[in-house]
Structures are given as structure tokens and as C-alpha cells.
Write a structure and sequence with these properties.
Length: 161
Amino acid sequence: MASTTTTRLGLFKPTPGTNEPFRITDINDNYDLIDTFSEEYDTEYAALEARVTTSENEIATLQPMTLETVTGTARTLVAADSNKLLRCANTLVLTFTIADVFAIGQTVNILMDGAQVTFTEGAGVTLHSSLEYRNTFRQYGWTTLSKVAAGEYRLNGNLTE
């Protein structure tokens, strides 16, 4: 039997002999396993690399939130509020009316820097939150409003009755 090499990596596999101080056959079998493993590794690596590239492309499309300061006592949600951070710096209670202007999946974040913000449903809107609370809890509280279905919005964050 002549010496050979593994198929993929070309690892040298010497011919087993009778006077060898160790078992060449076992080494050759292990070389074959290494060769097979390297092929499986390359396949897995290629799949992982494709997933990373996809994730990098998705991250590249993310846009930072735009900050807008809100003052006064009344505000109605508009389509341009999507992906914004609305910083409510009012000194009186702000009534924030949820109009049905977002596409499903769109979100707006509301940061309360001043007085309380009260959320109300506009025409054709159903608004839900934990315990159905509709008011921001304390100064510096953060609330997120998301459209989850046709005419249906969710309010999450620092809320109270």
C-alpha cells in the first residue's frame, strides 16, 4: 500500500508498516476525520458569513431617531412622528391624541421632561396598555407608542392611571 493524502486538505498519510513505533492506521483515520470536518466547517462558515452580511445590511438601513421638542397642552400624532423621540417639555398637562396615521410596525417614543402626558384615542383608534393606563407616570419617564394592527396601537412604558 502506497502513501496517500487526504482529499480536501492534502494531509500526508504514510503507509502503515510493521515496524512503526505508533499506529499509523489510527493517525490516518484521524486525518480523514479532520479532512471531513474541514469541509463541514467551511459549509457552516459560509452560511454564518451570509447571515452576518445580511445583518450588516439590515443595520446599515437603520436610521437614528429624530428629536423633536413638544410644548403646549395638545398634540395629535402625525405620520411624520414615526421613528421620532418626542421630548415633552410642557409645564401643563399635555393631551396627546392618537390619530390612525401610522403603518403597522411604526413606533414613536415619548419622553416626559415636564408635566404629565395624557394619551387619548382618535377616531378609529383602539389604544391598549398594561392595565389600560393612559398617563405618563413621572418626570423623565419614557413611553413608546406602536401600531400593531389596523387601527390598533399599544402604549408601553412609564404609565399610571
